[in-house]
Amino acid sequence: MKFLATKSLKENPFLKNLLAGLMIFIILFLVLDVVLYSEQIGFRFEDAKNRILGNEEEFIEPILFDSLLIMIHSNLFFSMLILLILSAVWIRVSKLNTLSKWILHLLFLMAIFSNIFLLIGYFYISFGVEIWIVLFWSWHFIAIFMAIYTIYRVYQDG
C-alpha cells in the first residue's frame, strides 16, 4: 500500500500489474453486474415493470419484496466496496482537480440512488424504475471509464 501514500509506481513494476489486474476485475464485475440485472429485472421499462410488479395478462409473477431487498442489500455492499477501491486508486493516478472530485461524488451518489430508486420503483413504478435504469447505466459506464483510464495512467506514469 506504499503506492497509496507516495503515488510512486516507478520502483515497483509488480504493483503496476497488480493495480491493472484489480481494475480489470472491477471492469469484469461491473459488466457482469449489468448482465445479472439484465437477466433478473431487465433494462427496458416494460420488462422491468413486469418483473417488479408482475403482469397477470402474461402470467408473470412479481418479484418478492424480500428478494428485492436482498438484491438491493447485496448490491449496496458490493458497489460501495468497488467504488471505494476504484476511488482510492483514481485519486492517486489522476490529477485531482475539481472535475475529478465531481466525478467521484456523482459516482457515489448515482450508485446509492440507483438502489433507492429501484426500491421506490417497487411502490411507485411510474418514475422509480425509469430513474433506476438511467442511474444504474450511468454509474456503471462512468466506473468502467474510470477503471480503463486508471489502467492507462498506471502504465503511462512508469
Structural topology:
Blueprint: H1 2-6, H2 13-40, H3 45-53, H4 65-93, H5 98-123, H6 125-156
What does this structure look like?
The chain is an all-alpha fold. The protein has one domain. 82% of the residues lie in helices and 0% in strands. The protein is built from six helices and no strands. The longest helix is centred in the last third of the chain and has 32 residues, at 125-156.
List how many beta strands DSSP finds.
0
Approximate shape: elongated
The number of helical runs is 6
Distance between the termini: 17 Å
Query: How would you state the average pLDDT, rounded?
Result: 84
Summary?
Helix content is 82%, strand content 0%. It is mainly alpha-helical.
Features of this protein?
6 helices, mainly alpha
